[in-house]
Amino acid sequence: MNEIVVDQLAAALAKWSPRLRVVRSSFEVPAATTDRRVDALLDLEGGWCLAVEAIGEGYPRDVSAAADHLANLLPALPEGPVEPIPLVAARYMTEPSRALLRERGFGYFDSSSGSLHLQRGDLVVHVDRPAQKPAKRGRPVDPFLGAREQVVLALLLSDQAWTTGQELAATSSTSTFTVSTTLDELERQDWIESKGTGKLMQRRLARPGALLDAWSEAWRERIAKGRVPQRRYYKFSNPVSKLMQWAADNLEVLGLADRTERLPWAFTGPAAANLVAPHLTAVNVVDIIVPPKTLDLVETALELEPVDQGPNLAISERGGAALMARGRSPSPQLHVGWIANPFVLYLDLQDGRGRNKELGQHLRETVLHI
Predict the structure, then answer these.
(1) Where are the beta strands (DSSP E) in 121-166?
(2) Which SUPFAM superfamilies does the UniProt record give (predicted)?
(3) What is the model's pTM?
(4) pLDDT in tens, 110-130
(5) Domains of the chain
């Protein structure tokens, strides 16, 4: 048991209301018919009783296990004047973990931020503050960066099928080490589930919507911080379909700097998404993805000049999963052309421009089915 967290919970309760002051506490309370125990029972001034399970880091997998533990023990606890309210307390608790506990009707306490949630009938105590991540030991693992992003996309493309680490390494074109570190983080966030052991262990997506939402949020933050090199241009062409055809014709024959292979590229953004999931009547800008460190090559070959106002063409340098699993244009109006994977299209529609978010939701419902 994490006694420090329980002490911090008691202090926070007294701070928020005198009626929440702890008047009696019992620790390591045994449950009948089992040798398992509840970390603490706290009797409060206002007639409330809390059954507390105290843990360290509150990621979804951790709080789910703690909630299951409490749910199993509550019926076997010693009878008291009031029914105990189950509460999970942690040194740090993520936002998805808090949402998970609220959905199950559990209370929670995050000692890093002071966030608190309790409900008894119609009475709710809710103190919501941003989670304060503790200092990480070792290098942080961001599952939505670089090669790890490719593992995430491979999982989303797997349609929740069971898959091994070696299979994921092959489909994501990454190493088994990259797959392992990515899956460890995704499992800690309770986005995937596993079965088996060792090399025979298999994983599959448990919450694809939550994973896609988290990836989308990480992508928006990356865009907001200017971490995606992009230039904007104006090329006289009307309608947009003609501009896309012109770009496709030129990019298809464009080789890399050493001229040993053709340049990989793909349309993205609303113009591309509208081909995959028609929804908007008009699109004004064509977005293109090219590999890192090739923007100068493309700009020179296509004889483009950057503009500050009125662009109708935007080209971004992207690595990771951006060009993975791209497909050919489904539109007969675009004779040649690559379209980014629908999951990448969805991410790029979360930029807040025009009706992009609306188109993204339409794509999610009709193509991604998440």
Answers:
(1) 123-127, 163-164
(2) Winged helix' DNA-binding domain (SSF46785)
(3) 0.69
(4) 998 899 999 888 888 899 888
(5) 3-127 (3.40.1350.10), 147-224 (1.10.10.10), 230-368 (3.30.460.40)
